[in-house]
């Protein structure tokens, strides 16, 4: 149906919030850039506690795989430095 409207259906996009954001990153990275058009992870669950932030960010950095990753945070984020350290 979508392809009959001229839309490219060969790649998919993922959107997830909180733990779903982590799932979106995980699924998109597993499919890779040939099957994933975009990933939007809103407030993704990337670590279980603040003390585990550094190790967790390094380990989860690979979630983007070959996909281009652009982390962004609003001015109200209590710890935007966690994103900048990536």
Automatic annotation (TrEMBL):
This is Putative esterase. SUPFAM superfamilies: alpha/beta-Hydrolases (SSF53474). It comes from the Bacteria. InterPro entries: AB_hydrolase_fold.
